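Meet my pick.
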Amino acid sequence: MVTEPARGDRVRLQELLGQPGTAWLVERVRERMARGRPLVGPVSTPQPTQEQRRAALRLVGTPRRTSQGLRVDLTELDRVLRASLWPAGLADAVCALGGPVTVRAEQRRRRSDAWGAAVRLFVPALQAHPRLAAWWEQWCATGSLRRVARAEAARTGAAVAGDVPELDADVALAEVAADVVRVAGVCVSQLPSAGEPLAVFARRTLGDAHALDRGRPVELLVRAAAEQLGDLQPGTVSPREAWHRVGLLVSAVSSTVLCLGVRGGNGAAGPGQATTTALDAWREHCVPAVLTLDQVRSGGVAPLGHDEVAYVCENPSVVEVVAGALCDAQRRPAPVLVCTSGQAGAAVVDLLAQLTARGAGVRYHGDFDWAGLRIADSLRSKVPWHPWRFGASDYVEAATRTDLMRLRLRGPAAASPWDEALSEVMAEHGQAIEEEEVVDLLVQDLLA
């Protein structure tokens, strides 16, 4: 890139090269410079105006041969300028008039070097988790790093849009990306965690408790890596679940579980005793309870016996209906029912682990749709369970029970490893059956 022009007769230069009649010539010269080609030989325009011809005449005199087109020899023009009004020559004169010219090959190299340097800053994470290498390469190749960098630039107000003349916008964006990758690499290299709250982890690793707040560009990158470490398909689980897979808790009090009939533990003290007292009262009166993760871990939850069963449903409305039915039937105490409320979070998984610590079984029911199968399979990877009216025959029975209008199955199909025929018959019927539609059967089981 040529920068400072040499001294010369700038006024005269403007008169000769800075007029409309020479605009085409200056444009051709700048294009050659941008391509890194030497300024030698002729350039031409096929149908010149009279103004363009007069301008060329003032520059290099009468052409040696006449033709319909107009040709200017750049070698001769450079010699004329050096010998008269601009000793630094043609290239410098063009820069003096219109600003520096960036050689594209050099620009591409600078941009490539800047993005390569940004990508390499993820090395600490790859050293800690070599299996992320292929994912990281693909993630960057598909433009995800650029999108995150643009989001960070917008958040921080970094100048990357070319509004600063001397700033190469793509190089500036790569520098923003480098800052994001550097921070993300530190975080990912320290995963998995051992049940640490997300904000505490962010404060410990980055010095900012809000660095991994939902929607922050750095959070998007670190969470994408967490999904890979947790063997999750991108976007198939909630952020809470993605963090949980790598041992991070969004909040020990914001992670909750809805349950019914859970017994309080014996011998608990302090907060555990409070949990025990509340659980026993709620169980006695068939009242659904919402426990935080802290309460689940307080020591106030009693495990079930090895011959007992914890029932699990997907939707909170099922718990509500079951509780009402138990009260109406004066069934005391209530059977144990745990609700995942969609994807099972840390509180759900921990509660089921405690309930089954002595060998109790788990029976699961959810929505008969593709999302429901994914939720069920995700829980199954953490807590073994047996289906509770959640097989192929149960789906067929539910599909033929009534003539209610149902939703069509949408989205990509999901597998049902606990009963491979289930996903097959669902695809064949094409109907989604919500858990609430068969809640009467679930109540019947729990009242038996």
In short: The mean pLDDT is 86. The radius of gyration is 35 Å. The chain has 21 helices and twelve strands. The chain has three domains: 10-98, 104-246, 256-447.
